[in-house]
Amino acid sequence: MTIALWFLISSLLFVSLLLIVLIRRRFAVVTVSGHSMYPTLQDGDRLLVLRHQSLHKYQTGQIVLSHLPYEGPWKEKLYIKRLIGLPDDKVTLHASEVNKLTHSDSVDDNDDKEYITWEIPEDHCFIKGDSRWSEDSVIWGPIPLNLLVGVVLLKLPRRTQTLAPPPPTVRTLTPPPKTSHR
Fold first, then answer.
1. Closest C-alpha to 156, from 21, 25, 32
2. Which of the ends of the chain has fewer CB neighbours closer than 10 A, N or C?
3. Cα separation of 69 and 141, whole Å?
4. Rounded to an integer, what distance in angstroms lies between the CA atom of residue 148 and that of residue 120?
């Protein structure tokens, strides 16, 4: 009986560890740092991400994680943006949106005739933050699809901070002067 029980426990432990490894390879929990997706996502929000989404399953409108399309020490940092263009799409934005992002005053905000269009090449996509001040494909241009890391599945509840209550206010009094007893 003890060998059967040991076999059952070890089998359950093995299957549990295997499931944990498989889940960790497919899913990740990330914390938003920054304001490029405001108001949709805010600094400190936690997200459940499906890693390594098949390239043919991405859809416009999804919130995705990507790497930066430049070499350097920031290359491994993840960026959270909205996918707004896929291969062979045309993305058109009003020039005033672009001006806010590039900090240029060359086009009047009220000029309805000024639009900028990007044609998305094969194996590329166009990502954009929800905030007007996001650094994204408006500045970088279309990025390779292989820089996408995954797609956001849902927003998780914020962690509650379990900080110790502040200490009570302590008033220090000047000690009374010492009197000598002679």
1. 32
2. C
3. 9
4. 15
Which pLDDT score is estimated for 95? 78
pLDDT for 111 equals 53
C-alpha distance from residue 52 to each of 1, 39, 58, 173 (Å):
44, 26, 10, 63
Mean per-residue pLDDT for 1-9? 83
- 140-152 pLDDT tens trace: 899 999 999 999 9
Domain parsing of the chain, residue ranges: 25-86+125-156
The single-letter code of the amino acid at 161 is Q
Residues near 90 by beta carbon (within 8 Å), at least 6 away in sequence: 117, 118, 119, 120
Amino acid code (one letter) for 96: S
Task: Quote the CA–CA distance of 130 and 112 in Å, as a whole number.
Answer: 21
| The pLDDT of residue 55 | 59
Cα distances from 57 to residues 18, 27, 86, 128, 148, in angstroms, run 26, 16, 11, 19, 12
The overall pTM is greater than 0.85:
no
Closest residue by Cα to residue 134 from 32, 59, 5: 32
